[in-house]
Amino acid sequence: MEKSIRISEIFYSLQGESDSVGWPTVFIRLTGCPLRCVWCDTEYAFHGGERQTIEHITERLKQWQTRFVTVTGGEPLAQPACLDLLSTLADQGYQVSLETSGAMDISKVDSRVIKVMDIKPPASGEMARNRYDNIDYLTAKDQVKFVIADDKDYVWSKQIVERYNLAERCQVLFSPVMGKMSPARLADNILKHQLPVRFQLQLHKTLWADARGK
Asked: What contacts 75, CB < 8 A, 6 or more positions away?
């Protein structure tokens, strides 16, 4: 029997963050997440969804003319069949990225997939869930993302970048929590300390606020 995955939604939009920001992208949002970050904006994906086979999912993608596919959540790696989905998408020629919380083992993710992995700062409420051994499985094409809510988060994130030499391993992204950390303040701090990180805002929120499917 073919493996199935519980899907919250599949939609076509512009990539709002990461290295491929701005590219028309199909998003496959899987249901479920073991974390409860205080600033989470996809709580609707914690439950529900619809079971779909990998074949059905890939057939749905054919309606959109794009080579970019992002598998996200929730936490997609909470469903073991996610690994099969990622490999199938890569086999079909898509440029595949995985958005993951950093709390799940990434060692078995297909090497062709771009991993965009969070490291959770203190204000997330889930700092204790960070799996620092995942850093060993990051390569130059991957990205580590810090979502920063306040100055304490910024200082902590700066220390983690330095401690693990993250900028020498992969691209590092710093993003402000909307309504918490001033984007200008975060940008000024990055420049002040000459950090080798990429500042970014969430493009989709600038364009469409919190609309689902965008």
From this structure: 30, 32, 33, 34, 35, 100, 101, 103, 104
- SS3 for 83? helix
Say what the pTM is.
0.92
The H or E element that residue 157 is part of is: helix 151-163
H runs (alpha helix) in 45-111: 54-61, 82-91
Task: For each of the domains in the chain, give its residue range(s) and CATH number, in order of start.
Answer: 4-208 (3.20.20.70)
pLDDT one-digit tens code per residue, 30-84: 999 988 899 888 888 899 899 999 999 999 999 999 999 999 998 999 999 999 9
Nearest to 154 by CA among 117, 180, 126: 180
